[in-house]
From TrEMBL:
Record-listed [4Fe-4S] cluster 1 binding positions: C187, C190, C193, C247
Protein name: Epoxyqueuosine reductase
PANTHER family linked: EPOXYQUEUOSINE REDUCTASE
Record HAMAP family: QueG (MF_00916)
Cofactor(s) for this UniProt protein: [4Fe-4S] cluster; cob(II)alamin
Cited Gene3D superfamilies: 3.30.70.20
Entry function: Catalyzes the conversion of epoxyqueuosine (oQ) to queuosine (Q), which is a hypermodified base found in the wobble positions of tRNA(Asp), tRNA(Asn), tRNA(His) and tRNA(Tyr).
One Pfam family this sequence matches: QueG_DUF1730
Record-listed cob(II)alamin binding positions: R61, D133, N154, L157, L168, S215, C240, D241
Length: 319
């Protein structure tokens, strides 16, 4: 039986590496005082758009002890999803890299459960819950506090050695663990992400106006896409990677090793014409286990039609 907080922390980090996580950091569970005012301002400015769930559970978002009774530590983990190759060519419609393969929520949560089971075999029983984008948790804040990375100007968590193409996950537990500390910011004077965003969604220091974001418009928004997105979608039909693709730190991204994140072969063969003629049957076959199923067929068709209409309008103007 391990005897102290430092040994527990070292064991957890060793297990994290064994189970395929890129990075693992530990923070003391407690109220995120420095995040309370920024979160309040974000909601007051309606930067969450129609994502009404963001306004729910305000206190729980700031305090993990309200999610796990007796919680003492937050274990933050990152899991790589950077692909071997981009699917879409320059002229093709595009989906975000994170959605190339199967749904990360299910895959990472299962990995976390297996990891916790091994830890409990060696440490003994402890109380915990595992999360990956599945509860009111400020994941980037905990990732920052634990030293995994810093919050970049595009509001993504960035790590020097690996960039930002990774999922975040947490184990909130009642173990007393040696904590890590935040790393320094390495964005400097760079503003590539700010300048590259076609909708000017990066509106402040590490602040995104979600209602202007292409990812929001193509995934979260359930109503019609507003006119202010016309001509600015840059062929993204699900999500958007622009602010990450231009980030200099992502030159260090390495391809993931997770078989379940590899794209369906049918997805790799899709071109603009086939996307335009997409049927419910083909959608169901390609995206059976994909995060893209979140939009449903009707939502993805809405996105495709919106982009095609913009292209048609541009062509009409030229003619």
């Amino acid at each position: 039986m391990l005897q102290n907080a430092e040994n527990y922390a070292n064991l957890i980090k060793t297990k994290a590496k064994k189970f395929g996580f890129q990075n693992c950091g530990i923070s003391r569970a407690g109220f995120l005082e420095e995040d309370a005012k920024p979160l309040e301002r974000y909601l007051q400015n309606n930067f969450h758009g129609e994502m009404s769930y963001m306004a729910n559970y305000f206190d729980k978002r700031l305090d993990p002890t309200l999610l796990v009774e007796g919680a003492k530590s937050v274990i933050s983990l990152s899991y790589n999803y950077f692909p071997e190759e981009k699917i879409a060519g320059i002229e093709d419609l595009k989906i975000s890299k994170y959605a190339y393969g199967q749904d990360y929520h299910e895959i990472i949560k299962e990995i976390l459960k297996e990891m916790v089971a091994e830890l409990q075999d060696e440490i003994g029983d402890f109380t915990c819950r595992v999360f990956t984008d599945s509860a009111p948790i400020l994941e980037r804040s905990w990732g920052r506090k634990s030293g995994i990375g810093w919050v970049g100007k595009n509001a993504n968590l960035i790590t020097k050695q690996t960039g930002s193409f990774y999922f975040l996950a947490e184990i909130i537990c009642d173990l007393e663990l040696k904590e890590d500390f935040a790393t320094t910011d390495h964005c400097g004077s760079c503003r590539k992400c700010i300048d590259a965003c076609p909708t000017e969604a990066i509106v402040g220091d590490r602040v995104i106006d979600g209602s202007k974001c292409i990812s929001y418009a193509t995934i979260e928004l359930k109503n019609e896409i507003p006119d202010h997105f016309k001509g600015k979608m840059e062929d993204w039909i699900f999500g958007c990677d622009i602010c990450q693709d231009v980030c200099p730190w992502n030159r260090f991204s390495k391809p993931h090793q997770q078989e379940k994140f590899k794209p369906n072969p049918l997805l790799k063969s899709m071109n603009k014409h086939e996307w335009t003629d997409l049927t419910q049957e083909v959608f169901s076959e390609i995206f059976k286990k994909s995060p893209v199923k979140r939009t449903k067929f009707a939502g993805l068709k809405r996105n495709i039609d919106f982009i095609n209409q913009g292209i048609k309008n541009d062509t009409d103007l030229i003619l």
